[in-house]
Amino acid sequence: MKILVPVKRVIDYNVKPRVKADGSGVDLANVKMSMNPFDEIAVEEAIRLKEAGAAEEVIAVSIGPAKAQETLRTALAMGADRAILVETDAEVEPLAVAKILKAIAEAEEPGIVMLGKQAIDDDSNQTGQMLAALMGRPQGTFASKVAIDGDHVSVTREVDGGLETVKLALPAIVTTDLRLNEPRYASLPNIMKAKKKPLDTKTPDDFGVDVAPRLKTTHVGEPPVRQAGEIVPDVDTLVAKLKSLGVA
Ligand code: AMP
């Protein structure tokens, strides 16, 4: 079985995003970019399934600018076998990503497409679900445990008030949640080895997908500045304060 892992290059989670002065988006000039954290978890899970003998090949795919190659090399250094870059400088929305992934999945026929539950740059949380719908495949989203069971996969999901386990017939779509695993660091020898692993470059046109945006961003702004706190001398003052604010 092959596992296809889509990995997105996003602004690093440690970076405090700066909004462009004209309110048209987030300023990405000279900002550290990394693999989307949920996608690192997906790569880790796919490699673990391969190490456990449940999969033969892990293929990482990224849709984005030429620099997304670095993200793919990280996936290869973690242990993916080969990579596909679908190169475009356009901002690709989840529907277009899902259409490209569908075309790749039809060609590669993976048993599982393992995505992150969401990309932390635009928090869409849509691509996995759209891909499952476009392909007519079962989906297990927000996975906190994944277990292959013959020609099925059991996915334990974090839902309100507890855990739910769904059993999906393969091939299936799985999206990863934070507690699924802790991704490994790539070792230096593996980073060197990753440079020699195959990386294919394509374009959205190769898959006949029009990536023109369907949505228009009207404004991006900073969140409101947090108000300063106030230290009160005793509990009575605190209670009076809370009452005056209408919260007690
Ligand atoms: P989203 O629906 O944008 O929140 O993204 C959910 C997941 O879809 C991500 O965690 C990735 O696994 C995958 N994905 C989204 N955009 C891309 C992209 N441009 N390239 C590769 N994978 C992507």
From TrEMBL:
Per the record, the domain of life is: Bacteria
Keyword Signal found: no
Sorted alphabetically, the keyword list is: Electron transport, Transport
Leader sequence range is: none
Against InterPro entries, the record matches this protein to: ET-Flavoprotein_bsu_CS, ETF_a/b_N, ETF_b, ETF_beta_N, Rossmann-like_a/b/a_fold
Q: Which residues form the Electron transfer flavoprotein alpha/beta-subunit N-terminal domain?
A: 23-211
Q: What's the subunit arrangement here? A: Heterodimer of an alpha and a beta subunit.
Family as reported in the entry's similarity comment: Belongs to the ETF beta-subunit/FixA family.
Q: Which protein are we looking at?
A: Electron transfer flavoprotein subunit beta
Give the organism the record lists.
Altericroceibacterium indicum
